[in-house]
Amino acid sequence: MIILKQGGGEIISGASMKEVPNILWLEEIRKEDIASVGGKGASLGEMASIGLPVPPAFVVTAQAFRRFLVETGLDQKIYKVSDNLDVENNAALEKAADTIKALVMKAKMPATIKDDIKASYKKMSQKDLIVAVRSSATAEDLPDASFAGQQETYLNIKGEIALLSAVQNCWASLYGARAIYYRAKQGFEESTVNIAVVIQQLVHSEKAGVMFTSHPISGEPTTIIEGSWGLGEAVVSGSVSPDNYVFDQRTEFITEKTIANKNVEIVPDGSHGTKLVEVDAARQDAQVLSEAEVAKLAMYGKIAENHYGIPQDVEWGIVAGTIYILQSRPITTIGKKEATSMSGQSKDAKILLKGQGAAPGTATGKVVIIRDAKDTGAVKEGDILVTRMTNPDMVPAMKKVAAIVTDEGGMTCHAAIVSRELGTPAVVGTKTGTQQLKNGQLVTVDGEMGLVYEGAVGGAAKAVGAAPGVVGSAPMITATSVKVNVSIPEAAARAAATGADGVGLLRIEHLILGLNKTPGWYISNHKEEEFVKELYDGIRIVLDAFPGKTVWVRTLDAPTDEFRNMAGGENEPMEHNPMLGWRGIRRDLQSPDQFRLQVEAFKRLWKAGYDNLGVMFPMVSHPDQFIKAKQMMAGWGVDVENATLGIMIEIPSSAIMIEDFLQAGIKFASFGTNDLIQYTLAIDRNNENVADMYNPQHPAVLSLIHSSIQKCREYGVECSICGQAGSDPKMAVWLVEHGITSISANIDAIAKIREAVARTEKRIILEAARNRDAE
Ligand code: PEP
Ligand code: MG
């Protein structure tokens, strides 16, 4: 894996060179393998793994390239040429690039690599197959596109000799003058830069084009397909007006069809390259796709969308009736534009209620008012759930509805957290929703703007599965890890589809509270095993969705009032202010049985091989609590010194005493700003009367965060954030500037956070380079 380290711009290569073979077939590759197969290879592998008809391919891995460099002694030679190279000196740069490229081209490819490539090529087809040979840079998905486009692609390659030479050409292209320049400017160590090469059957499409799996602006489940004759580049480059087909995923019918005049097409030029030619008269106005082909393409699109959890922009081609999927990337326009169009269309609509837009998206439906969790049986699919405040036993109903409106709460209340994970639009803190709205009334909810309109407005639809603004799965590499928060296991797949670097907060209380029985009930009814199993199964779903990535599971943190409606809830103490009450680690330390059962579930997961599980303690106010928790866990047989145990910084005292926590051996710390803000400013986070004073950027809050980050950095301990503030791009910029190690955001915020992080990192590097140059 390539890691760009904070501050120094240092690059290290963490991939083990020993384990990865010279060749990986598409079927063996997943998106996590980017360090071995590069961005292109990883994305093709991921598509093949879900059964999409991707043309056969194999990848000459980055490790093969490195073996080539080491075994030929080139690594040393390249180092000699590039070391101390002044990249600002054009002549010197060009000369160095030419020298290195010539060295790479002249070097004899080790027999093992050569044999592996030849054998794989033969395995693709007994007769010489025509292939495309494409460089797949392992740092290709760095946000700076100019870096990515540096390496070569060779089309129309036929025969072993041409293939081996094309591979070596791709390797050499890593050392173009511009590529060396960019790497130097971005602080990459030349000796650790890698490249993979994808060798794929070339598809000479007879017809081809692009497809948006959902409407690219409104996000509605209508697939839009554009197609024309010849290779897809004609459509992608805009050199032809393609046919346009709109396929409704709900009815599975084509609802619109526009047949264009297609006067040109791009076709292969003999055995090399491509050319633009005129389409013969008979095909110019003919329909490109049959109805069956449109339906099949739309089905493939749906598969990709479901897998990634967000609408996709897909390139496809058809040869002799066979469909090939050539590329799939997330559509990034959904969400922002939808919000604009919604407010545009709703200019004349009557606003019934205003609150906080807690989960983006818009939906129209009939109001169902729920005054007590026991009445959720009345909720039907597609309704608008209106309630004072949701609680965990309402989650099954929340999954059914088109939108959620609450009287109380802010951006971090239960309704807001769960709605965002479900991808269901929500407006919270309307104050009077349950009084003003009537059962059965038709309303439209705008979860972005925080508005509820009378009647149906602007063709709003429930954002099924794909919440607007949800993230791209394309792995953009940032030095600051961008992780995701998860509260309900059902959201694990959507969360993983964001490509997040792990889970920075798994709230297990949602899992337990959804069972409708308090932990105390399980204990006093001798159903401990059942409780442990529920925890084990729920957490495992999330761990399985994030293989090889850390998942920080937080121990129980439910205020007593949230337990009250459940079986066993009658034994919960009545607290004047549950937010300041018996919750988090304070309760676990005083309720050893409840703590032990959670630890038992963790122990079983560790034993089952889930090394990626870390445990995070909430509401910690003194290092003694951490030490005590560790001792208790050790007493129950946990190897506490090797387990990943960390704390949330949610109470000012833990920020003030962070150094004592670091000395007590925490392995990570994560800001729970939802609470940190309320405890620093004395603002109840769920009280809409003071919501406007709830200020994440209050200097006192920022000061606590800043000093804690500094200390964690001194001790080399990961410092993260999992509170709602981490989902705000402005805050993310500030956090990166102040040295945070990772940010864990909501599913719907990952894309914008990743972008904000990447931009900020780039800016920091650029400014450092400029300052150096100026010196
Ligand atoms: C927080 O306090 O910021 C946090 C993430 O925890 P919760 O919202 O569950 O209290
Ligand atoms: Mg908290």
Descriptive account of the structure:
The chain is of the alpha/beta class and about 775 residues long. Helices cover about 40% and strands about 20% of the residues. The chain contains 29 helices and 31 strands. The model is unreliable at about 1-20, about 140-150, about 330-345 and about 460-475 (pLDDT under 50). Bound molecules: phosphoenolpyruvate and magnesium ion. Phosphoenolpyruvate binds near residues 412, 505, 507, 650 and 675.
SSE layout and pairing:
Blueprint: E1 2-4, E2 11-13, E3 23-25, H1 34-49, E4 57-60, H2 62-71, H3 74-82, H4 90-106, H5 111-124, E5 130-137, H6 145-148, E6 153-158, H7 160-173, H8 177-185, E7 195-201, E8 207-212, E9 222-229, H9 233-237, E10 243-248, E11 253-258, E12 264-268, E13 274-278, H10 281-284, H11 291-308, E14 312-319, E15 322-330, H12 336-345, E16 351-354, E17 356-359, E18 362-370, E19 384-387, H13 395-400, E20 403-406, H14 414-422, E21 426-428, H15 433-436, E22 442-446, E23 451-454, E24 481-486, H16 492-497, E25 502-507, H17 509-513, H18 519-524, H19 528-545, E26 550-554, H20 560-563, H21 584-590, H22 592-607, E27 613-617, H23 623-635, E28 644-649, H24 652-656, H25 658-663, E29 668-671, H26 673-681, H27 699-715, E30 718-721, H28 729-737, E31 742-745, H29 750-774
The chain binds phosphoenolpyruvate and magnesium ion.
